[in-house]
Amino acid sequence: MSKKEVYEQKAESILLPIVASHRFELVDVEYVKEGSNWYLRAYIDKEGGITVDDCEVVSRAFSDKLDEEDFIEEAYIMEVSSPGLGRPLKKEKDYARSMGKELEIRTYRAIQKEKEFYGILKAYDDNSVTISRDDGTEMVFQKADIALIRLAFDF
Q1: Tens digits of per-residue pLDDT, 107-126?
Q2: What is the dihedral sign for C-alpha 67, 72, 76, 78?
Q3: Residue 90 gets which letter from DSSP?
Q4: CA separation for the pair 31, 9 (Å, rounded)
Q5: Residue 154: pLDDT band by 50, 70, 90 thresholds?
Q6: Coil, strand, or helix at residue 89?
Q7: pLDDT digits over 25-79, tens only?
Q8: 23: region left, alpha or beta (phi > 0 left; psi from -120 to 50 alpha)
Q9: Sheet holding 25-34, edge to edge
Q10: Whether this model's pTM surpasses 0.85
Q11: Which of 6, 11, 95, 141 is packed most tightly, with the most Cβ within 10 A?
Q12: Distance (Å, rounded) from C-alpha 83 to C-alpha 49?
């Protein structure tokens, strides 16, 4: 297991009781390097959406616990935020929540000369995703071929 994965798992184990105590959902935790800075990011959500105040409450409690545990060697910036409208589907619960909803899928390589697809999520498993397109056809994508998958949204 990489250091990144260890940090993410440890952070998630610290965050879960904090988030649960406020009846929020922990959507994701990531430890990433952007430029010269490391970031530890937690994405939280709740029915009706997360507010700045919600993020602040979790951030303060999380920061205190991180100071106590002190398990990350490098200097880093900690952030707590909403996953946003265009959040990618990553976990099984994301797919379950998105059944019957319109998705945007971008593939690494062109399929039938296209790399961007829209359709209603009809099925998924550990390896594949099936959508129903506007013309009534179904398309099956291997998850390994998907660069991005998220809820589609119109402005």
Answers
A1: 999 998 999 999 999 999 99
A2: negative
A3: -
A4: 10
A5: low
A6: coil
A7: 998 899 999 999 999 999 999 888 899 999 999 999 999 999 999 999 999 999 9
A8: left
A9: 25-34, 37-45, 76-81
A10: no
A11: 11
A12: 10
CA angle 91, 95, 100 (to 5 degrees): 170
Residue 118: strand, helix, or coil: strand
Query: Degrees (nearest 5) of the Cα angle 59, 62, 63?
Result: 80
Tokens of 102: 């319109």
Query: In one letter, which amino acid is 132?
Result: S
Higher pLDDT, 153 or 147: 147
**C-beta of residue 14 within 8 angstroms of C-beta of residue 69:** yes
Instruction: State CA 99 to chain mean position distance.
Output: 16
Q: Rounded to whole angstroms, how far apart are CA atoms 86 and 76?
A: 25
What is the three-class DSSP state of 51? coil
Cβ pair 90, 74 in contact under 8 A: no
Distance, in Å, from the CA atom of 141 to the CA atom of 86, rounded to the nearest integer, reads: 20
Pairing, β 102-111 against β 76-81: unpaired
Of 50, 47, 113, nearest to 83 by C-alpha is 50
